[in-house]
Amino acid sequence: MNTFTSITILVTISGLISYLNHRFVKLPGTIGIMVIAIAFSVLIMLTGKTFPAAYALVSDLTSSIDFTKTLLDVMLAFLLFASALHFDYQKLKEQKRTVLILSTVGVIGCTTIFGFLLYWIGPVIGVDIPLIYCFLFGALISPTDPVAVLSVLKKSKIPPSLETIIGGESLFNDGVGILLFVTLRELAVDTSVAFSWSHSGELFIQEVFGGILLGVISGYFCTRLAKKVDDLQTILMITISMVMGISVIGGLLHVSIPLAAVSAGLMLSNMELGESKGTFGLKSMLDKIWGLIDDLLNTILFVMIGLQIVVIPFFTNYWAISLLSVVFVLIARGVSIAAPGILLRRSLKVDYNRLGILIWAGLRGGISVALALSLPDSDYKPLIVSASYTIVIFSIIVQGLTLNKVVDRLVK
Predict the structure, then answer these.
(1) Sign of the four-CA dihedral 266, 264, 226, 238
(2) How distant, in Å, are the alpha carbons of 254, 357, 360, 386 from that of 396?
(3) How do residues 157-172 score in pLDDT, each as one tens digit?
(4) Could you give the C-alpha distances from 37 to 32, 44, 51, 58, 302, in angstroms and in order?
(5) Pseudo-torsion of CA 152, 155, 160, 165, nearest 10°?
């Protein structure tokens, strides 16, 4: 199956599933799309012998698309840029301390707690995983997914300040989580490599500060160019080429593409266009177009996640550890958010009710699945992939469907 054929089939399936959700199922966008995609995949698997052509089509489609590369190297930069572009930069500055603590301490704490829980309790049910792989699993499942979080919060009655904290955390913790994952993966794959604080520090500086610098430079030049023209098509092409350039250059320089995309998006969110009479409303139209791009890519991404069930190890092989992992990640998320929230309650200005919302808003999505699939082949990869997929399904469907109810109950 060639690339164009794969894209055609994927877009067609995405359009059909989107139609079914809006016409009949009527669940919130991304959640409904993923539910239908999963149901479609399960149906195809159960009727594989009866309809072998349909099973072969879906199987070939999922096999022909490198989910990890497609998401991390192509789609992620567009999704994060689009989300950051609609962010209120001034509100983010007001909550910068809270966002910084949650996106760093929260991810590292969640990784550590999850890793130890899996390492200590796993053998009780006959699952013995080395500690380094437990931490590796924790690193890939700890970052919250901005695509999932922000799409659910669109129709929420959540207070603006809390929405800024949740959205800001989800935008920035991807870079920290991916950096932590890459470091631990290097230690897990090559056991001869000893952990070095200096090497980790160099990698941190290169990935984090390099990614932010790339985003700031890209955003600066894009803003300068956009302000010189009054044509929407030209400005749109400039922004699209900038995001594509961030993906390519970020990969070549080995800096954080997520942080670069977010930094560029935040810079452009402050950009003023349409000052003259002939260009009035230009920025608003640009935002709407990028919002449409965001929605389209969201739909395709969640369809891809749903279809991945065809190639992911069958759930019954690891059902016990998968369900246990769901509990572990909720505990780890709760402790890693509650601890700094309680210790720094006055300075962070986050009450206990809001802590509950922050904990439950930790939705996982495509990034966790992509990182799990990127693991090198080992005896532990099928288990980690299966459990990661289970956590993502629980997170998006259960937490996603109940998040607004939790917000309504806890917000006073």
Answers:
(1) negative
(2) 30, 15, 11, 16
(3) 788 888 888 888 888 8
(4) 8, 10, 18, 11, 8
(5) 0
Closest to 387 in 3D by CA, of 68, 74, 34, 138: 138
Within a 13 Å sphere around the CA of 83, how many CA atoms are in the beta-carbon half?
A: 32
Q: CA angle 114-172-392, nearest 5°? A: 45
Residues in the chain, total = 412
Question: How far apart, in whole angstroms, are the C-alpha atoms of residue 266 and residue 242?
Answer: 14
Q: Which residue has the higher pLDDT, 220 or 198?
A: 220
Using CB atoms within 10 A of its CB, is residue 225 exposed (0-12), middle (13-18) or buried (19+)?
middle
Helix (H) or strand (E) holding 409: helix 400-410
User: Around Cβ 283, how many Cβ atoms within 10 Å?
Assistant: 20
Task: Give the position of tokens 């109810």.
Answer: 405
Entry pTM: 0.90
Under 8 Å between Cβ of 73 and 247: yes
The span from the first CA to the last CA of the chain, in angstroms, equals 54
